[in-house]
From TrEMBL:
Lineage of producing organism: Bacteria, Bacillati, Bacillota, Bacilli, Bacillales
Gene symbol of the encoding locus: drrA_2
Top-level EC class as recorded in UniProt: hydrolase
Keywords annotated in UniProt: ATP-binding, Hydrolase, Nucleotide-binding
Domain ABC transporter as annotated: residue spans: 2-232
Enzyme Commission numbers on file: 3.6.3.-
UniProt name for this protein: Daunorubicin/doxorubicin resistance ATP-binding protein DrrA
Amino acid sequence: MLKVHDIKKNYENQQVLKGVTFHLKKGESFGLLGPNGAGKSTLIGILTGLIRATSGSVTIEGLDLNKETNRAQQMIGIVPQEIALYLHLTAKENLIFWGRMYGLKGKELKSRVQETLQLIGLEDRANDKVKVFSGGMKRRVNIGCSILHQPKLLIMDEPTVGIDPQSRNHILETVKMLNNGGMTIIYTSHYMEEVEYLCERMAILDHGSIIAMGDQHELSELVGNQREIIFTIKREHGQSEIDRVCQYIHDEDPLKEIVIHGNQIKIFDQHPQQLLSRLIQGVTALNVQIISAEIVEPNLENVFLYLTSKKLRD
């Protein structure tokens, strides 16, 4: 369905993408992950034909995106991170407008608009202006506009940012249904549980390169015997307790990498039970109150953390 081969992108003296390669089968759901600045947005721009790569190629069902841009773009739907709607128009009017932009008209357009309103759960709000909608409802219309032309490849860039749990759940179920119906999905999100739920395979992009790719089990194996230890401590004097605990861990093992997130301290170790026991004794001796201490089995979020040493939501 999609072949991305050795994509490189340079801006002046900076190389943003450094030879990205991956292939997607028809009907596959693929998670594209990476910290801010990793090159995800640039890669999405290239995959949609909006940005020209410095070198490399993208083919969609055999069509070269650079040489047959218009035909290839007809197969793509894009759900941008920012809302791309006309707020003074109704939900139905927005769908009609974008449907016409895709070349739909007459009975086909009317039918697609009705089907889409039903799919996104807004039949009863079809004639309400988008400006009065909640964030979740706007997101649902945003998705509706991207699938009116029934694309073969749907690229979704953080489609659930800042919405209520009900709308988020509805969007996830909609994506799942579209994928089960044969639509190929590229999904990027800072919410690991969404990617775990939706995607068969994932790629982690960092500093312009894919540093890992596979299904969840394959990615988890990259951690090997390492397990994540999470300490949650009570902060009574600002950053003081965090600094003291980190200094203690550093004194115990100067090479141990520490990740701080709020009042949590995260580290990886091959013998977590032994280390956890020592740390509890040491931290207690510092008169720092431990709220919780746990060992986490590998999941997508701590695999990401292990590989990039960054918290994805940062």
